[in-house]
Amino acid sequence: TLAGIVFILSNFLIELYRADQKLMLDPAYNAESAMETFFNVADRYIRPFENRYKGKSIFPIREDESLFLSLAAYREHLLSDTLTYAYGRAKHPEKLFVGAVVQNCFGRIVNEDDYRIVDSSGKPCKTGLEVVGKDAQGKDRTKMSDALPDKNGIEDFCSSTLGRPVCDRGQIRVLYVHSSGSLGPAMARYHASKLWGGETYFVQTDSHLQFAEEWDDKYIREIKATRNFPKSILSSYPPGFQGHIATADDLPTVKETDGARLCRCETLKGKGPAPVIRLNTGVGYRGNETRPTQIPFIAAGFFFARAEFLVDVPFDPFLPWCFMGEEIALSIRAWTSGWDIYAPRKNLIAHQYRPGKMG
What is the pLDDT of residues 199-211, one digit of tens each? Predict the structure, then answer.
């Protein structure tokens, strides 16, 4: 059951938090010991679960054109807005199910054995680095400040006129993680993928998006136009937007623009000895193409596939604190498992791209 899966994942995260708290008391604590602790706990909780369902689907895949939307949200102030757009613009909102991993600062942790027990009074959280001015050389001055607990986008959405019936029907599934126990985007997406409950299609996006009218139906028709369907994946880096929305009655129109092919990459010099591979868009569509074009890469911030993808290319549960490299690994594993990747001909979503020092 989904409840059983959430129980396994929650126990893993809580046990890892306890182990990390003990580890940090060790004067010899370092990155290597943190990684070793992670793998020791994952071997006990996650590996048996993965081995049990290796090569098969946890739930039967329904042939009803339903969609599962996977969202990894880290201290996300636009989560409710993203859900409002997704359901408000869907042609078939009754067929849309969401699995969200909400990584928030809920308050000051008061029990070292369980990060779910918190004191939310006052300002127990911290902002990120906020730009507060310029120094004498004209460079940004930054600081962190005390802050209130993060807004719970799930609660906000479920208390809205649009969201209440959706949540009452059980279409929103959530795993809550205290932000101090976050393991990075790759692990959050692994956890979100386990909230899938048998829907026909699997969609992974970021949690700060806007959606075009009838985006769900249009993506289904687009993926069926690919040559390798049903083993096809749609993926792209969507165009950006600024600002956010308020209610289901105030949804700015997302303009459908010609898509771009994700077919370029470059190497960047990181802090370590090895270069980092970064993906980028290439040539855009002209608008007269009869089929989606095949591309080499999957963007983790948006891809769309039939749910058999989760059987053939299950998310890797052993990528803690991984960001750069996640997309390359996913692309290679999909390609070598017989899945072809395509760029959608139209952009049906918009993404809020953020500066590094937003707060």
Answer: 999 999 999 999 9
